[in-house]
Amino acid sequence: MSDSAKQAIDAQHQEREMQRLMAEITELLVTHHGGSLSEQELDQGIDLLQAAYQLARSSHAEQRRKSGEPYFFHPLRVAHLAARNWMGFPSILAALLHDVVEDTPVTLEQVRLNFGDEVALLVNGLTKVEDLELNRGALKQETYRKQILVAIEDFRVLCLKLWDRVDNLRTIAALRPEKQVLIAEETRQIYIPLAKHLGMGRVADELEALALTVLYPRRAARYHRVQREVCRQTEAGLRKIRSEIQMECNRHQLNVMLKDHWRPFSLEGSANMTRGVSSLYSLDVLVDSTMDAYLALGVIHRLYSPITGKLRDHLSTPSQHGYQAIKTTVQCGEYRLRVQITTRKLGRFNESGVLAPGFEFRHENFAGLMRSLLEGETVFDTERLRLASASIQTYTPTGQPLILPEGSSALDFAFAIHEDLGLRAQRARINGQTRQLRTRLMDGDQVKIETLSEPAALPKWLDWAVTPRARNSIRRYLRSRVRSDSGSDPAPDHE
Asked: Where in this chain does the record put each HD/PDEase domain (predicted)?
């Protein structure tokens, strides 16, 4: 076959793939959002979608990725990922157009005139900062700042950036190894924590697996080999367990859906993979209501022996980032099995977080975190963002739960309740025992803060606090003392 004939076949295949993706995007938009739009609004949305498709395709027509693939496939796949996760017409238009301002002659003003202010805001948030006077590192930091500032106004810009990063990591093989490593490290420092803060747990897991595969390719390959072998060896046994659970739930008139979940590659999973199915697999149980989730838990615990200390209830008390499910581990004959039970609705929340219909997104909390990160020691405080992504649950003296980042101190607890309480903190009582403010809290701790009559924060507190809220409050107080009271007696050196 001649080269021209091969090129013609490739072009036909690419055209069919573009049409397929576009058809699925349109169908998803109509399915997810058509019921909430009037016929006129829906027709207008579809017209704008076609216009964005044509503009992006023509603008990127001569561009190719490092792999040789036509560049337009990238924004098209990003739009497809966004549509699969309930994003609406403006977001999909922005996904299709997210690189035209940065990489083609199309201007942001043209996007605004043709598609409106909402789409232009999102596209602008996804466009890198350009400044000839800044070096690459400074430009990157300013781009982070720009994305976060836009995200405070509209979190969808970060969601789109996450889908952009997912596709870039899936297709990263054509880049130079050193470039791959930089992208993977940036993903772990910035985008995985952000995905967690948006409640997008499954997205965070995929980003982590993709990034770690770049950084630890041999370990990832071994993990997947072991996982495939465990899958083969346990297929019949897991089928029997699912059948037993299904039959027992049917007997109790519980409508359940059972889903296999083979866990993506992670460093923890790689370290524990010799434990077999318990570290590589979990069974997802989806039910109709919260009450049914607890009934299903009882059914499963009657069928199989629960492992002591492995039950976590995130239905009654959601995790820091909104994850809601009951987690348990049971012994099913020779298999030790992790089980996650949740409702179908909450299952969507756990996968897509803030994007899932009905998700109660704590926008003010998120915006506050983003502002505090921008006020940190660097242009974008990545270390504080990472720390804030793993959480523990603590309790006030009255039993109210308080979610804090893992590694938080009693001082962080005080500032999480109120800035004045933090500034006047003297010591803590943790589970009834007197402890210093720098004491690191454990999951389940009950904490009472003992206070002084006046604020008395100390510079060393900055070494004890990990949360942006606490650190920024301490810095503001210390600056105000330097300005207004530099000649006064120093505060008592308490702990």
From this structure: 67-178
Sign of CA dihedral 124, 127, 131, 134: positive
Give the confidence band of 377 by pLDDT, cuts at 50, 70, 90. very low
Residue 495 has pLDDT above 50, yes or no: no
Catalytic residue among 102, 130, 260, 463: 102
Active-site residue, selected from the candidate residues 17, 24, 103, 244: 103
Two tokens, residue 199: 């409640």
Whether the pLDDT of residue 492 is over 50: the answer is no
Domain-ending residue, one of 310, 337, 355: 355
**74 and 95 share a domain?**
yes
- Would you say residue 389 has pLDDT above 70? no
Q: Residue 329 pairs with which residues in a beta bridge?
A: 338
Is 103 catalytic? The answer is yes
Among 170-184, 306-320, 455-469, where is mean pLDDT lowest? 306-320
User: In terms of DSSP H, where are the helices of 252-284?
Assistant: 267-272, 277-280
Report phi then psi at 392, rounded to 5.
Answer: -125, 160
- Contact call for residues 154 and 122 (beta carbons, < 8 A): yes
Are residues 447 and 415 both part of a single domain? yes
Number of domains, the chain: 3
Instruction: State the Cα–Cα distance between residues 478 and 463, nearest whole angstrom.
Output: 14
- Write out the DSSP string of 386-419: HHTTSEEEEE-TT--EEEEETT-BHHHHHHHH-H
Q: Is 375 part of any domain?
A: no
Q: Per the structure block, which two tokens stand in for 373?
A: 């990160």
Separation of alpha carbons 338 and 329, rounded Å? 4
Contact 80, 24 (CB under 8 A): yes
Pairing of strands 433-435, 447-451: unpaired
Residues spanned by the domain of 162? 22-214
Q: Are residues 318 and 438 in the same domain?
A: no
